[in-house]
């Protein structure tokens, strides 16, 4: 599985010749100005919750890729179906769905969820992506929660993608505990630096992970990591 970072919490996952786009927030993000959303051709789009900084580019990308399957919680899928998105699959917490080339499990997150127009966005979540004999935990926006201790019961996690920006989610100190809860020593950070309240000292964060015996990778926009 290959994960390419498009800034903020947006990743493109490649599994064999299939592509999954997660939480598209690219065109409003000055840090991702080099990414052209018209060139992104996902087969599946995963959305963790309804906040603007996770769905901003979802509709234009889905309209541009009518075969792309939207997978999210029930309320978010309904909202997009009302906007004429035909190819969509609703889930809710605890459920697993087989995409054919990979499976996804929608897991708990402690956060909030409202659509950009104020519509109810269901409860927020994260995903475990099971693909190519590897499993990746994408936490979404969340606080540190003991629910994360369940994650290693669902899968041996090879890579954890965790928010580290603080203020709206956990910060990197709590993300170190989260990595321990999910029993994964390889972490990619997300949800930092995009806005002033979530700007972090990256060297300090990387150093704190190192001290805890963990690896924190902060990908430059456009760069990839393979598991
Ligand atoms: Ni959020
Ligand atoms: Mn967010």
Task: Identify the notable features of this structure and list them briefly.
227 residues, alpha/beta, 7-stranded mixed beta sheet, 6 helices, binds nickel (II) ion, binds manganese (II) ion
Architecture overview:
With 227 residues, the protein is of the alpha/beta class. It has a 7-stranded mixed β-sheet, with helices on one face. A 7-stranded mixed β-sheet has the order 7-8-9-10-11-12-13. It has helices spanning 52-55, 58-64, 74-82, 151-154, 172-181, 202-211; strands spanning 2-5, 11-15, 18-22, 44-46, 69-73, 88-91, 96-98, 103-108, 125-131, 134-138, 159-163, 186-190, 215-217, 224-226. The model has no long low-confidence stretch (mean pLDDT 98). The structure holds nickel (II) ion and manganese (II) ion. Nickel (II) ion binds next to loops.
- Poorly predicted ranges (pLDDT <50, ≥5 residues)? none
Largest sheet data: 7 strands, mixed
Task: Encode the helix/strand succession as letters.
Answer: EEEEHHEHEEEEEHEHEHEE
Overall morphology: globular
What's the number of extended β-strand segments? Answer: 14
Ligands in the model, by name, code or SMILES, are: nickel (II) ion, manganese (II) ion
